[in-house]
Specification:
Layout (H helix, E strand, L loop, with lengths): L7 H31 L1 E2 L2 E2 L2 E4 L4 E4 L32 E5 L1 E5 L4 E4 L5 E3 L6 E4 L96 E5 L6 E5 L21
GO cellular component, one term: cytoskeleton
Subcellular location: Cell membrane, Sarcolemma; Cytoplasm, Cytoskeleton
Keywords: Cell membrane, Cytoplasm, Cytoskeleton, Disulfide bond, Glycoprotein, Membrane, Signal-anchor, Transmembrane, Transmembrane helix
């Protein structure tokens, strides 16, 4: 028989055995925790099922996941069942080149040339941003855009057209801006600028009312110009600076007078 372990060597052996025992208990607890979170039972996972023949993964219960990378960019539910995607205190973002962000206050679609809403029953396009005569769908009280390039904006008959912004509203036209209505009301918290680059500002009405406490005409100062360079042909031209912060990007020319074409 071998010599028994005594003294300091025996103490080290006992410490090693106790350490391994503690690690085994901790590992067992973590295993039970993982089984509880994934709901793993004798018949498998109760909240998740893999369908290898269809290359599908079926979530049977409510599942909390931070992000999902979908195969072939397709996420769907079974026929006759709804698919509910909810963001807890955050937006739901679907990103497949184009981005769809659904939040509690707004739904945003970005990085697309055209957005269409198609009826799943009839297959017809209910809404599209590429409509030549765009109409706001029924049930939508207003349309919020940062910038829109249109030929004409018109409200329905006997209804008012309201254009508003929390900061500033710019109405620009390469060939002019024409506003026609039975009554036109322009209101601003600070300043209102009416400007014509190559012509006049014409107010033509039966009665024009200015409700201004103190109206003064500013003294004209010396003209100021800014040099601009065309990116296509390198041609240099000057433009008159109409206001502070006016840059070359604000210049709009008719096609026949555009120096960059």
């Amino acid at each position: 028989m071998g010599r028994p372990i005594e003294g300091r060597a025996a103490l080290l052996v006992y410490i090693l055995v106790i350490t391994l025992l503690i690690l085994s208990i901790v590992n067992f607890c973590f295993t039970l925790l993982i089984f509880g979170v994934l709901r793993v039972g004798p018949s498998g996972m109760s909240g998740l099922e893999f369908l290898p023949d269809e290359n599908l993964m079926w979530f049977l219960q409510r599942t909390d996941i931070q992000s999902i990378v979908a195969h072939r960019s397709k996420i769907s539910s079974f026929k006759g069942q709804d698919l509910n995607i909810v963001g807890e205190n955050s937006d739901v973002v679907l990103n497949a080149g184009a981005e769809l962000r659904v939040g509690p206050r707004a739904t945003r679609v970005s990085r697309v040339e055209e957005m269409r809403v198609v009826s799943p029953k009839t297959g017809k396009t209910v809404f599209s941003t590429d409509f030549k005569n765009f109409k706001i769908p029924k049930g939508v009280p207003n349309l919020s855009v940062s910038e829109a390039h249109v030929k004409k904006i018109r409200s329905p008959f006997n209804e008012s057209l309201l254009i508003t912004s929390e900061k500033q509203v710019y109405l620009k036209g390469n060939a002019g801006v024409h506003i026609k209505s039975k009554n036109i009301s322009v209101r601003a918290a600070q300043d209102i600028h009416l400007k014509s680059v190559h012509g006049k500002v014409v107010l033509d009405a039966k009665q024009i009312i200015f409700n201004i406490a103190d109206m003064q005409s500013p003294e004209p100062g010396p003209p100021q110009y800014r040099l601009c360079v065309c990116g296509s042909n390198g041609r240099v031209f000057r433009v008159a600076v109409r206001e502070q912060g006016y840059t070359c990007n604000h210049v709009r020319f008719p096609i026949s007078e555009n120096p960059c074409t």
